[in-house]
Write a structure and sequence with these properties.
15% helix; SH3 type barrels; 9 strands; 3 helices
């Protein structure tokens, strides 16, 4: 019997951490032929899904697939995502979570045959955006060189590093 990957266990642990702390868990997924998601929401071969209790119905996080029902544009859809295609799970409110290696050897040809979109691109890592807080060194610079202050009330952003 082959050894089971630690990835599904880590996904469930981060999901539980998010819900225990009142955060909204999201997963970033590379889309291929085995992924069942609304294709109109896929961008650059990826989709980010809210997997919180409030946003899903019948969430099952098995060792091979994550499946649930969710509403997209008011229409209920059945979602099925291979665990291998999940590249990150994180809390929407603060961006904390875990990123995974992008899957290698995805069946991009399967997706290309089904749609006319470009092939799936893979990511090597995800990183959070550094804080824009002022330091003493930056407070001594002239006002015209100061960066614009961050806007309040924005959502956390993940920056992809290729």
């Amino acid at each position: 019997m082959p050894e089971v990957s630690t990835k599904p266990y880590l996904l469930r642990a981060i999901y539980e951490w998010c819900t225990d702390n009142g955060y909204t868990p999201h997963i970033a997924v590379v889309v291929d032929g085995r992924t069942r998601v609304p294709m109109q929401f896929v961008k650059n071969g990826e989709i980010v899904l809210n997997v919180s209790f409030e946003a899903t119905s019948g969430l099952k996080m098995d060792n091979d697939f994550i499946s649930f029902s969710a509403r997209f544009g008011g229409i209920s859809r059945d979602i099925s995502v291979p665990v291998d295609n999940v590249i990150a799970i994180y809390a929407r409110e603060n961006g904390q979570g875990m990123a995974f290696e992008a899957p290698t050897g995805l069946a991009a040809s399967d997706e290309a045959a089904e749609s006319s979109e470009a092939p799936v691109t893979t990511l090597s890592a995800l990183a959070s955006v550094p804080s824009t807080e002022k330091t003493e060194a930056s407070s001594t610079t002239s006002p015209e060189n100061e960066p614009e202050p961050p806007k309040k009330g924005g959502r956390p952003v993940l920056t992809r590093i290729k």
